[in-house]
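Researcher: Go.
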Amino acid sequence: MKNVIYTSNAPEPIGPYSQGIQTQGVMLFLSGQIPLKNGDVVAGGIAEQTTQALENIKALLDEAGYTFANVVKATVFLKDMNNFVAMNEVYGKYLGESKPARSTVEVARLPKDVMVEIEIVAVK
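Model: Structure:
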């Protein structure tokens, strides 16, 4: 059994997918979040974009009754691996204490030509 997670405090899906899916009330899978606020890509560089992506994730975690402490796996997609250090600084402020498993990969292009997209899996 699965429960769709939705909040208006994170960007509307821009395709045929859910913001998040919770299974059996235990596992939470969040779709990749990009740095959108009120439908627009946030201004600034990788730090600002990473912050907004993580704020969107925080809104979805809150909606589902989870916190960053519940995150067990994160995947970070970067447009440019040269932004790794700056992204990692912001990421550490949100997830540093819980230290989930993580993969970070450079990709050719992301939706709306953003610099970063982050997806997570959380468990209660």
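Model: The two ends are 16 Å apart (CA to CA).
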